[in-house]
Design goal:
It comes from Halosaccharopolyspora lacisalsi. InterPro entries: Inositol_monophosphatase-like, Inositol_monophosphatase_CS. The protein is α+β, with helices and mostly antiparallel strands. It has two domains: 6-161, 2-Layer Sandwich (Fructose-1,6-Bisphosphatase, Chain A, domain 1), CATH 3.30.540; 173-280, D-Maltodextrin-Binding Protein, domain 2. The protein has nine helices and twelve strands. It has helices at residues 6-9, 13-37, 56-72, 84-87, 110-115, 187-196, 207-215, 229-242, 269-280, and strands at 78-80, 101-108, 121-128, 131-139, 144-149, 153-156, 159-161, 173-176, 200-203, 221-224, 245-248, 261-264. The strands form two sheets. It has a seven-stranded mixed sheet with strand order 1-2-3-4-5-6-7, with helices on both faces. The longest helix has 25 residues, at 13-37. The termini are far apart.
């Protein structure tokens, strides 16, 4: 058990190491459950969104996560996808609610999980007022646990990951996701803009894995027009520590944009931001270099 005040914990290396260890174990536990249950008759609960379902597996994994974190890190609140409203939630634009907190999405990509499609994840992160401190993303179907801690780098199954100095966008893939109600405003123009530079756009159904693909060097960029904090926090920790650039919708660097983000290697971020900016604003904005 680790007991520290929120103020001191943010600067305590021992807490970061313990958080990374516990988060990794929780990610492994969740990956096993997801592999065993995906596509096996899960009945999603009805919600107001056709793209945001709730399952018993999600509830069970979140309860397990909350129990372990409450034991190991008492006094640090946990906000989550399934019980965010019940226990007090933290969504995009609300990152200042508490200086130190955990956020968890037990099954990111629920529609894929229910259908048995191999593209969903477990995401967990510890954050402070500056953004993610520790983040893990479990990719059960590929048998991978991705983990990162601030200023300690990213690892996949224990192997260090660092982005190459990519500058070419042609023949690349950009990942994006629908909003809770469907395509985001300007999404069609965004796809057209990317296609004009010979870049394909994919909607794969998991914000966490979309950003993770950039961190791994598989995707040219990820653009998310809206999201909840727990959707992206773990993956943003990975991307930042792998060397990716994170921009908000105005083209400004940010460790955790409150509403709308782009993640890309530094040499590609400017071009990728142009596809996004021209899709929903009359003129391109400035990108911090």
């Amino acid at each position: 058990m680790t007991v520290l005040s929120s103020h001191s914990a943010r600067q305590e290396p021992g807490l970061v190491s313990r958080a990374l260890e516990v988060a990794g174990k929780l990610a492994n536990d969740a990956a096993d459950v997801i592999i065993e249950t995906a596509g096996r008759g899960a009945r999603p609960a009805a919600t107001e969104s056709p793209f945001d379902w709730v399952t018993d597996t999600g509830r069970t994994l979140e309860r397990h996560t909350r129990r372990i974190l409450a034991d190991e890190f008492p006094g640090i609140p946990v906000f989550g996808e399934e019980f965010g409203e019940e226990f007090g939630g933290a969504g995009s634009g609300e990152t200042g609610i508490t200086p130190l907190r955990w956020v968890v999405d037990p099954v990111d990509g629920t529609a894929n999980y229910v259908a048995g499609m191999p593209w969903c994840a477990y995401s967990l992160a510890m954050l402070d007022e500056h953004g993610p401190i520790v983040g893990v993303v479990a990719d059960p179907d590929r048998g991978r646990i991705h983990a990162a801690a601030r200023e300690r780098g990213m690892r996949t199954n224990g192997t260090p990951v660092r982005l190459a100095d990519a500058r070419e966008t042609r023949a690349g893939i950009v990942c994006t996701e629908f909003t809770r109600t469907g395509p985001w405003e300007g999404m069609g123009r965004f796809i057209t803009n990317a296609a004009a530079d010979q870049v394909g756009v994919r909607v794969l159904g998991s914000p966490a894995l979309a950003i993770t693909q950039v961190a791994l060097g598989h995707a040219t960029a990820a653009v998310l027009h809206s999201y909840q904090e727990w959707d992206v926090a773990g993956a943003l920790a990975l991307a930042t520590e792998a060397g990716a650039t994170v921009l908000d919708r105005h083209g400004t660097r940010s460790s955790f944009p409150p509403d709308g983000l782009l993640v890309a290697p530094p040499g590609i971020a400017h071009d990728a931001f142009g596809w996004w900016q021209h899709a929903h604003e009359p003129s391109a904005g400035h990108v911090d270099q």
